[in-house]
Amino acid sequence: MKKLSFKMMAILLLGVFVTASCSEDDEDDDAIVVPVESNTIVDVASANDDFSILVDALVMVGLDDALANDDASFTVFAPTNDAFVALLDELGVSALEDIPTETLTAVLLYHVLNVKAPASAVSTGYYSTLSAGPADGYNLSLYVNKEDLMLNNRAEIVQTDVMADNGVIHVIDKVVLPLSLTGHAVANANFSSLAAAVTKAGLADALADESAVYTVFAPLNAAFDELFTDLGVTLDDFTADDLTPILLYHVVNALVPAADVTSGYVPTLSPAQGRNVSLQINVDGGVFLNGSSEVVATDVVATNGIIHAIDEVLLPPTVVDIALDNPNFSILVEAVVKADLVDALNGEGPFTVFAPENTAFEELFTTLGVSGVEEIDVATLTNVLLAHVVSGNVASGDLSNGSVPTLNDGKSLEFNVDNGVVIDGDINVILADVQGSNGIIHVIDKVIVP
C-alpha cells in the first residue's frame, strides 16, 4: 500500500504540474479579462431615478463622459428632479431644450468641484467650480455655508456623501445659478450691510451688469459697524447721494485678481475724475488699501468680476490723507506737520500738489548739508511747501506749456509738457493724477526750491 501511495502521489503531482503549465500557456495565448463593474458619478446618478433630469442634462451638453472619467476626482452638488422642475418654472420654460446649451453647460459645471470633498472636508467659505469665469484661470466661486448647509443662500444640501469611484455626490434641493457681483453680496450674510448700502444707492443693477467687468473691494459687516460707530450714524442717515461716491470708491473698472495686485495707485469709479485707492503689499504679503484697510479674503469670482473682502470701509482721502497713507511721502508729511499746513491742505480746496518722494527730500538735505526737516526753520519750510501747491484740481491732461502761480506768492512753476511733464527745466512728474477728495497729487522727483 505504501509503494502504491507514493506512486499515485507522484502521478498526481505530475498532473498538477502539467495542468499548471498548460494553464499558463493558455493565459498567454488567450487571456480572460474579468470586467470590473463601473461606479462613477454618472453611474451612481443614472441608477437613481431622482437624478434622471440631471443625467439627461449632462448627456444633452456632453458632460456625461467627463464625469464618468475614472482618472479624475470630483465633488458634485446634485439637484434632484424636483429642483430642475422648479428651475424650469423659475425661468419660464417648459423643458431643458429651451435653455441655450452654453447657459446649461455653465450652470451644470457650477455644481462641480475639481476635487473630492466629503462633508467632513467642507467648511464655510468659497469654492472654485468648473464653470468658467470672466477671465482664463478664474472659475466662478460657490459659497458654502456649512452651518445651515446652504449653497449661495439658495440651495440646501439635503444628503451628503453619496460615494462614487471618482468622487462624491451631495444632494441639493435647488439648482444653483452663477452669481454676479451683486448676487454674491446678497448671498453671503457677512456682506449684508454692503448689500443694503448698494441697494439704497441704486447701484445693484450696475454691479450685476454682465456687459462690464469690475473688481470690488467689499467691506465686511464689521467694517460698516465700525464706520457707523465712528460717525455716530446708521445706514438710515445716509442718502443715496451720500452713499454713491463712497461705494464707487470700492470699485475698479477692471479685473484685478490677487495675483495681479502690485503696490501703487488704482483709479476707482468714484466721481471727480476717478479717485485713486492706494494698494500696498507688506513684507509679510499682506495687502492694505489706503494704509489701513486690510484685504482679508481674495478672489471671489463672479460672472462679471471679482471680489476681495476688506476689514475697513474706504473713504475718499484728502490730499493730506494720500500723503499719510503712503510711506514714500513720510518726509513730506513730517514737513507739512512742522509747517502747520495740515488743516489748510485738509480744507475744501481744491488743491493740486506736486509731491516730492522721500528720495527727493534726501537729495535736498545732502545739498543743504542738513540731516532732515528738523534742521530747517518753519518760515523756510513753509515757503518751500507752498511752492508745491497750485490752486484748483489740475489733472496732467489739463497742463500746457507756460507759467502757473503757486500758493507761494513769490514762486510760479514753469511747465513743459512736450515730452512728459517737466517743471522748472529739470523736475519730472513721475506719477500723475492721484485724485483725492479735495484735490489731486502729481509725484515729482525733486523738491521745488523757490
Present the secondary structure layout:
Elements lengths: L1 H28 L11 H6 L5 H10 L2 H4 L6 E6 L1 H11 L9 H9 L2 E2 L11 E11 L2 E8 L4 E2 L3 E10 L2 E6 L8 H7 L4 H9 L13 E6 L1 H11 L8 H9 L2 E2 L11 E4 L3 H4 L1 E6 L5 E3 L3 E10 L2 E6 L8 H7 L4 H9 L3 H4 L5 E6 L1 H11 L9 H9 L2 E3 L10 E4 L6 E5 L5 E2 L3 E9 L3 E6 L6
In short:
By secondary structure, the chain is an alpha+beta fold. It has 16 helices and 21 strands. The model is unreliable at 1-29 (pLDDT under 50).
Which descriptors apply to this entry?
alpha+beta, single chain, FAS1 domain, 21 strands, 450 residues, seven-stranded mixed beta sheet, 3 domains
The biggest beta sheet reads:
7 strands, mixed
Q: Helix amount, in percent?
A: 25-40%
According to CATH, the fold-level topology of the largest domain is FAS1 domain
Distinct helical segment count = 16
3D structure, described in words:
This protein is of the alpha+beta class and 450 residues long. It folds into three domains: 132 residues, FAS1 domain; 130 residues, FAS1 domain; 126 residues, FAS1 domain. Helices cover 33% and strands 26% of the residues. The chain is built from 16 helices and 21 strands. It has a seven-stranded mixed β-sheet with strand order 2-1-7-6-5-4-3. Helix 3 packs across helix 6 and helix 7 packs across helix 8. The chain is elongated.
